[in-house]
Every structure is written in structure tokens, then in C-alpha cells.
Design a protein that fits this description.
Radius of gyration: 22 Å
Order of helices and strands: EHHEEEHHHHEEEEHEHEHEHEHHHHH
Structural class: alpha/beta
Largest sheet: 4 strands, parallel
Strand content: 5-15%
Number of helices: 15
Distance between the termini: 58 Å
Number of domains: 3
Mean pLDDT: 96
Shape: globular
Low-confidence stretches: none
């Protein structure tokens, strides 16, 4: 059979830069069964394949709904079903990903996630069940795959997509397995800073880690706990540490002016706290920020914080001025008058 595979995020999101694990496993399954498999780089050839698989991770990735009605199409992923996405069958889930699937697309591109990394989940699931998060399907972390199931010895690093690795009771054994591989590794979806202990910091201080350490600071109410954990973390870890700063999500579901103002203030405050610990904030905006009367400030904060070279050198005010008096950046800056001036002049000093 001729099998077509569509990574909808790759086609629908210009800045998308990581492969789809389900697509790679489906490819392996069909190649093992003697079928011809191709990653489609457009929707123009959808009628030329006996079976067509469409997968997407993000709900806002655009796709023509009529494609999903075609008799040769199967589709899945959190982008279609959010936290109710069906699992791959076990006989597909536990196959080595086909790392060659994206070879045609990556020609001429320097994208290490596609060329250098073995990709997989050692564990799946999370007990937190955050209202905004897709990972509400399970109420605990559980073993998903042995490392050998997705480790390509020819690839330089290991990229782990675990939902909440540190919450699994066997995290020590799993971490030891990663260390024994002798390959640098990174938890790309981050680790849970709230679960950090002296023991964990001691062990992570001795591993080969690929890239920045990533955590999250989702809510200002967690300030005291997160600061206590950052003190432990920074006592032994000198490597760059980044925390996602989630904003634009109203847990009380009001979405009124008071919420938008307080959310902007709380975002600035979290940035200030992270500065104090020598950590980098990365602004993650819930999509309803588009509805905010202060939408421009959310954009400004992301442009400032999410460029470390800019964030490390300039205060927020300096960043705005660098864009020019007639820029949209300056216009957004002038639209907000309720933020304490001290936040505009705070500066990363490391």
C-alpha cells in the first residue's frame, strides 16, 4: 500500500520545529509491513494514497475539515481531541520511531531536533490536572517506554517529552538509566520545580544535560514554594535555568478588566522573582490573551523575555525604547498605566 503521513503542525505552523512522535511510529509500523511510506509536505496529493494519517498536537493548527471526511483518512492527536485523544495501539506505540521520516523536509535546514535527538517518553501522565493543560487524561505518572525502545545510538542526544518525570516513584532508576547511556539528555517539556529536593538537585548536578533546564512558574500563588525550591536548585546548579511563565488564563473564568490588569502585574512580578535567582523567564500566553485590552503588553513581554540576548541586556523600558518612538512596541507600552514603574526598570544582572 501507499501510505501518506501528514504532520499538520509542520504544515500549519510556520515556526514549528519538532517532529511528531506518533507519525514516526506509524511510519515504522507500515514500513515493517512492507508498505511505501511518505511524509507529505502539502495537502495536494491526499487522493493518491491508500491510507492517509493526519496528526496534530496543537488545537489551533489550521486544517481543512473536509479532509477528515475522506474515506482513506485516519486522524488523531491532542490537536484534534485535546485530553481525550485516543492512544496509539500498543503494537504501534512500542515501536522504534522512524527517524528518517522527515529526511526530505530537513534538506538544507539545520534543525537538531530532527537530526540529532532520540525522542520519546520514559513516563507519561501527571497528577496535577491543571485546568489549562492537555495532560489531564491520567491522575499519576506511569512507565511509558524503556529507553531502549527509542534510543538511536547514532544520535547525539536524548530528548524526553515526559509530562511529570519527577512525580514517578522510580525517577531515580530512570535517571540512572539515562546517565548510563552516556548521552546528554533534556526534558523538553520541563520538570516540576515544586517537586525538587536536595537529593534531586545533587543528582542532576552530576549529569550530562543537553541545553537549558526548564521548569514552570504558572501562578503567583506558588511564589513561596517556588522560591524555596529555586534556592535549593541554584545552590548546586549553575547551568542556565528557564521557567515558563504562563499568563492570560483566568482560573475563575471571569475574563474581566480586573483580571487582565492583575494578570499583567502578576506576570511582571514573576519575571522580577526569576531575575533575582538568575533564571530566564519564557512567556507562555494562553490564546485568550488576544481578547485582552492589554494584548499588546502580552506581546511586548514575550518579545522581551523570550529573546535571552535581549532580556539579559535591557530592562523592559530599554527594550521598548530600542524599538523606536513610532513602533507598535512603544504604543503598547503607553497603553498601560497601572503597572508599578519599578517593573519597567528592573534588570537581569548575572
Amino acid at each position: 500500500m501507499k501510505i501518506g503521513i501528514i504532520d499538520a503542525d509542520l504544515l500549519g505552523r510556520p515556526k514549528h520545529r519538532f517532529p511528531n512522535l506518533a507519525c514516526m511510529k506509524i511510519s515504522t509500523y507500515h514500513k515493517n509491513n512492507g508498505n511505501e511510506v511518505r511524509l507529505l509536505l502539502s495537502y495536494n496529493e491526499v487522493h493518491e494514497y491508500d491510507k492517509l494519517y493526519i496528526s496534530k498536537v496543537f488545537t489551533d493548527t489550521p486544517i481543512d475539515g473536509s479532509l477528515l471526511q475522506l474515506p482513506n483518512v485516519k486522524y488523531g492527536g491532542t490537536g484534534f481531541f485535546f485530553d481525550k485523544a485516543p492512544n496509539l495501539p500498543d503494537y504501534v506505540e512500542h515501536l522504534m520511531p522512524d527517524y528518517s521520516l522527515y529526511n526530505e523536509w530537513i534538506i538544507g535546514k539545520d534543525i537538531k531536533d530532527y537530526t540529532d535527538s532520540s525522542i520519546g517518553f520514559l513516563t507519561r501522565g501527571c497528577f496535577r490536572k491543571c485546568a489549562f493543560c492537555v495532560n489531564k487524561k491520567y491522575d499519576r505518572a506511569f512507565i511509558a517506554s524503556p529507553l531502549s525502545e527509542f534510543l538511536d545510538l547514532n544520535r547525539k542526544t536524548i530528548s524526553l517529552w515526559d509530562d511529570n518525570f519527577l512525580s514517578h516513584p522510580k525517577w531515580r532508576e530512570l535517571l540512572a538509566e539515562l546517565v548510563a547511556s552516556c548521552k546528554p539528555f533534556q526534558f523538553r517539556q520541563g520538570l516540576d520545580i515544586r517537586l525538587i529536593t536536595e537529593e534531586k538537585v545533587e543528582l542532576f548536578s552530576k549529569v550530562k544535560y543537553a541545553g537549558d533546564y526548564i521548569f514552570a512558574f504558572d501562578h503567583i500563588d506558588d511564589r513561596e514554594l517556588i522560591e524555596s525550591k529555586l534556592k535549593i536548585w541554584k545552590s548546586k546548579i549553575s547551568k542556565t535555568t528557564k521557567l515558563y511563565v504562563f499568563c492570560g488564563f483566568d482560573r475563575d473564568n471571569k475574563w474581566d478588566l480586573d483580571f487582565w490588569k492583575q494578570d499583567i502585574i502578576d506576570t511582571f512580578l514573576r519575571i522580577k522573582i526569576l531575575m533575582g535567582y538568575g533564571c530566564l523567564p519564557y512567556i507562555m500566553r494562553f490564546n485568550r490573551y488576544e481578547e485582552s485590552p492589554y494584548r499588546g503588553t502580552y506581546i511586548n513581554l514575550a518579545r522581551w523575555c523570550n529573546q535571552p540576548s535581549m532580556f539579559k541586556k535591557k530592562s523592559y523600558r530599554e527594550f521598548v525604547k530600542a524599538n523606536g518612538a513610532n513602533s507598535s512596541t512603544n504604543k503598547y507600552f503607553e497603553e498601560v498605566d497601572f503597572v508599578d514603574e519599578e517593573f519597567y526598570d528592573m534588570k537581569y544582572d548575572r
